[in-house]
Amino acid sequence: MDPIRQRLLKKSRQAKLEKRGRLIGLLCISLIVLVVVAIFYFVASRGLATFYHDKVNLWDFLTKQVWNPGTKDSHGVPAVGALPMIVGSFLVTIFAALVATPFAIGAAIFMTEISPRRGMRILKPVTELLVGIPSVVYGFIGLTVVVPVIRRLFGGTGFGILAGTCVLFVMILPTVTSMSVDALKAVPRYYRDASAALGATRWQTIYKVVLRAAMPGLLTAIVFGMARAFGEALAVQMVIGNAALMPHNLVSPAATLTSVLTLGIGNTIMGSLENNALWSLALILLLMSLVFNLVIRWIGRKGAVKS
């Protein structure tokens, strides 16, 4: 009986493989968490040095409009006002989302509700192609096409918020479109059948039923596109003008957090005020990405509760 009992109590090969798989999965998750925590710690330690090492006031850093870390103002305070870059980042992000959302939702409705076969055959490859284009190509096209057109139509240099908005609009359009398509496809078919059985037209069904049922997914797509636009660096840097000034209009040169970072991080000495101030901008970007992720999760929970 002892050998039989030992054989029955012995773990099978499948159980050992499952335990090994769980261990590997736990190690991978732990590694990911460790990398994320390390990134947050590194950026935060560098970014906060501006305030506890260089004695820069946080409120002044967020609200002042002069960005010249190598100089000081009349009160002897370093001129590290990040407000122009913060405003520029939010302006190009919001405007790009406002322009891209109607086109993305319209294309998604066409691909899912109006002409699924033709839409999937034509529009889907186009959106996938737009996703695969490098950002430097978008920036170069914006520099050679968008900027001259804006200069001819509105005057000035052509660089500014409007040029950045046009470039970001094209860049986030495929992302918002693909996620909107998934959100519309997730609406159960019987919603449409029930609406048609009540006598609603196709457009009434789309507007009153499908779009409202897919609203959490559509909002998630828009916020995800905004997060993509907020963190874009190279393409925006090539067309926005890179002037750390408060934008007075849409065609005046401006700057974003990412454009100032990419231009200045390689020209500063580690540990200096100039370098610490740039890391503070990077910390703002990191915190904003966290905010976007939290908003996406909140929208997803709201949609799950309603459904």
Automatic annotation (TrEMBL):
Gene Ontology cellular component annotations, sorted alphabetically: plasma membrane
Subcellular locations according to the entry: Cell membrane
TM region positions: 21-44, 82-109, 129-150, 156-176, 209-230, 250-270, 277-299
GO molecular function, one term: phosphate transmembrane transporter activity
Protein name according to UniProt: Phosphate transport system permease protein
PANTHER family attached to this UniProt entry: ABC TRANSPORTER PERMEASE PROTEIN YQGH-RELATED, PHOSPHATE TRANSPORT SYSTEM PERMEASE PROTEIN PST
Key word S-adenosyl-L-methionine present: no
CDD domains: TM_PBP2
